[in-house]
Design brief:
42% of the residues lie in helices and 10% in strands. It is an alpha/beta fold. Strands 1-8-7-6-5-4-3-2 form an eight-stranded parallel β-sheet. Helix 5 packs parallel to helix 6 and helix 13 crosses helix 14.
Length: 337
């Protein structure tokens, strides 16, 4: 992976945006060299579509149903007009379909530029591989909560043992949404083992799979192993508030609940002794027709902002979007797709 380019006025790293802007103009004027990636956030999807295959693009760009929730996220930001931003790298899964460096590359860069990296359970790299790549960086672990308690405890033990300091428990993805862009391509990466690496590398999952299937490993039958991992992680059965006690017993660090969209749920998180929440609708990828997350952020902050840490994601495209979320009370903003 390339290192972050140092600027002569800032040898500590972390290239400053003003200097970067001047470099872009200089490259164009003197060398007729234009930016590889567009500087217009509205054109990023169009550019990505040219370079990614249809399956990879639709997986990352698609949303639930007719993408109404995704549109609501953007509309909510546009209705608010307008430091060093407290950014976190969101838990985006299956990164190997976008770039061969996958999650390990992103974790390395996050460490270099000083942003906390959040590893998704749906990763194409293992917990241990990402920890090694992240080095001394700050790293958090996002849990898609299995139904199997032994599996859950094993994942949390691995994360804790490998230096992940904060646990994010996603609440809104106990079943995968109706995503037309993926369905039209009949594409689910997990079915072919892509994005299942955390499960396939887990000793409890491997032991149970071997006991059930005549000592087979997940690598011996990837399709079967994928089905069993998905059935446990995306089971279609939601967990209850009371079951959070298991998580609290297995994890002795801060716990953050991701997917809070209602004041009463935020208050319940406080009641359960949770340290933080992420106001999020999963970027519009789970429930079509939901409200834009930014719409409910102010009232959630007003209700519980002095009792736990309120983070935000969903619909963030630009630095101005980040500023709006911060001004509305979020203490940090997750950036991802």
């Amino acid at each position: 992976m390339p290192r972050v380019q140092e600027h002569p006025e800032h040898p500590e790293g972390g290239r400053k945006y003003g200097a970067h802007q001047i470099e872009i103009y200089k490259d164009g004027i003197l060398h007729n060299r234009l930016p590889t990636v567009t500087c217009d956030s509205n054109k990023l999807e169009e550019q990505a579509k040219k370079f990614l295959g249809a399956r990879s693009f639709n997986y990352v760009a698609g949303g639930a149903g007719e993408r109404a929730t995704m549109d609501a996220n953007r509309l909510a930001f546009r209705q608010w007009k307008t430091f060093e931003s407290p950014l976190l790298v969101a838990p985006v899964g299956v990164q190997t379909i976008f770039h061969h460096d996958k999650e390990t590359g992103m974790a390395e860069i996050a460490s270099q530029i000083g942003l906390p990296y959040i590893l998704s359970t749906a990763a194409s790299s293992s917990i241990e591989e990402v920890a090694k790549a992240n080095g001394d960086g700050a790293r958090w672990f996002q849990l898609y909560w299995p139904q199997d308690n032994e599996m859950t405890k094993s994942l949390l033990h691995r994360a804790k043992s490998n230096g992940y300091k904060v646990l994010i428990v996603t609440l809104d993805t106990w079943a995968l949404a109706w995503r037309p862009a993926d369905l039209d391509n009949a594409y689910l990466p997990f079915a072919s083992g892509i994005g299942d690496q955390i499960g396939f590398s887990d000793p409890v999952f491997r032991a149970k799979f071997a006991a059930k299937h005549d000592n087979k490993t997940p690598e011996d039958d990837i399709f079967l192993a994928s089905r069993e991992w998905e059935a446990d992680v995306f089971s279609g059965a939601a967990h209850t508030w009371e079951e959070l006690e298991l998580i609290k017993q297995a994890w002795d660090g801060p716990i953050v609940l991701k997917g809070i969209q209602h004041v009463e749920d935020a208050k319940k998180a406080v009641e359960m002794g949770i340290q933080g929440i992420v106001v999020s609708n999963h970027g519009g990828r789970q429930l079509d027709g939901a409200i834009g997350s930014l719409e409910v952020l102010p009232e959630i902050v007003e209700a519980v902002g002095d009792k736990l840490t309120v983070l935000f994601d969903s619909g963030v495209r630009t630095g101005v979007d980040v500023i709006k979320a911060l001004c509305l009370g979020a203490k940090g903003v997750l950036i991802g797709r």
